[in-house]
Model the fold of this input.
Amino acid sequence: AQSVAQPEDQVNVAEGNPLTVKCTYSVSGNPYLFWYVQYPNRGLQFLLKYITGDNLVKGSYGFEAEFNKSQTSFHLKKPSALVSDSALYFCAVRAASYNQGGKLIFGQGTELSVKP
Amino acid sequence: ETGVTQTPRHLVMGMTNKKSLKCEQHLGHNAMYWYKQSAKKPLELMFVYNFKEQTENNSVPSRFSPECPNSSHLFLHLHTLQPEDSALYLCASSQERTSGSNEQFFGPGTRLTVL
Done:
């Protein structure tokens, strides 16, 4: 069965510091991995995805994520946090093989708070 | 905005009411989804439509009834709901291929409160 874990409910970072939001996954076969962000009273907004190829994926708003197959992780990172990055972040996984069901499974979300 | 619109944005209803949520996607996608987002819980997939055909019903109670008249519109009909059904209901769409590598685009959601 597919699953996603975001071990931290909340991450607090000072503006200008690097940030990391953690995600680990479990899936049969190769994964497709996604990060989404949700601002208050808004739907989820796509940030980036890993399908294949380079393990370091760059996305919107200066975010990037590193796929680590041996650790089954896909942590979201940004070199310098902004107050406007404060939001709820979701990691999601889907099995690459359509025979595995094809559902997109979301983690429970991590609240990122960036203080000035 | 993301190209996926939802109406209404907020809805308050009694347990005996009947109401409908509407979703429209302007992206030319072939798949649409309903999700339920409750506080402190992961997103719960409710229904999936591919090419207007329902391909997934994730053990959703019958008081929720989806309808997909065409590939651009998706409805969620609500009747005799319970207070625990209060949540944010999100609609999403994607261009589905057999690889499943495409991301989903989400609407802003309908905040539903059941009294």
Observations:
- The mean pLDDT of chain B is 89.
